[in-house]
Amino acid sequence: MRFLIIGDVIGRTGRKALKEFLPSLIDQEKPDFIIANGENAAGGFGITKKVFDELISLGIDVITSGNHIWDKKEIVQFIDQEERLLRPANYPPSALGRGYGIYKKKDKKIAVINIMGRVFMGIPLDCPFRTFDEIYERIKDSVDYIIVDLHAEATSEKMAFGYYVDGRADIVFGTHSHVPTADEQILPKGTAYITDVGLTGAVHSVIGMKIEQPIQKFLTGMPIKYDVATGGYLFHGLLVEKDEKKTEIRRIKIKKE
Ligand SMILES: [Fe+2]
Ligand SMILES: [Fe+2]
């Protein structure tokens, strides 16, 4: 199976990059299954039904998220109805939505699990490590592939998690920092791993947002509203090919200034 993974898609600019680059990438690389993190897909904060449908119409199979999942009010109206939309599994059990799903493609059962880190995230969630253990025990005998979007800030937490689940998950990809890391690798027990896939969004931006606004925030210490940056755009992705014989991992970067 060939998996194409896309990190945080940032607003209209990110969606424009997807529309421009994804069709030819699908043609060339022929992925069997595509996952994208959509927590910033609508105006940089959250996701709406319309934007969800737009991403799915581009051929994306599952949309993961993170701390921004609740930012658009309408999410509570549709998250329970959308099996292809995930929120972190380590939210309290009473939270709306689901933290993982099992999807069928090419006669294979693929589990996608969305988990959020706790370091520098400011949200009191359950332990990401034990959350994985619980879900793993529940699903391990009934799926062919297990893929984790670990939505976290600290590189150390993500790497520790990668090694913790090595050999149990097939792919662990990090999201949330919006900055890609160059550490894609196959861990000793076979898990394909990257600390962060990086954003799909504006080239000249601060993590996808208009440059002046975060600068003002740092200069003044005051809360400043952020808007999605426009202009040239960038696509960051990860391709993982995995079967009984081999695992391959490759980063993709496409840019249009
Ligand atoms: Fe994000
Ligand atoms: Fe995030």
Overview of this structure, please?
- The protein has a single domain (2-256), classed as Purple Acid Phosphatase, chain A, domain 2 (4-Layer Sandwich), CATH 3.60.21.
- A hairpin with a 4-residue loop joins strand 11 and strand 12 (247-256).
- 25% of the residues lie in helices and 27% in strands.
- The protein starts with a strand and ends with a strand.
- The model has no long low-confidence stretch (mean pLDDT 98).
- By secondary structure, it is α/β, with parallel strands linked by helices.
- The protein has six helices and twelve strands.
- Strands 1, 2, 3, 10, 11 and 12 form a six-stranded mixed sheet that branches.
Summarize the structure.
The chain has 257 residues and is α/β, with parallel strands linked by helices.
Shape descriptor reads globular
Mean pLDDT: 98
> Compounds present?
fe (ii) ion
Oligomer: single chain
CATH topology descriptor: Purple Acid Phosphatase, chain A, domain 2
Keywords summarizing the entry:
Purple Acid Phosphatase, chain A, domain 2, 12 strands, single chain, binds fe (ii) ion, alpha/beta, 25% helix, 257 residues, six-stranded mixed β-sheet, 6 helices, 27% strand
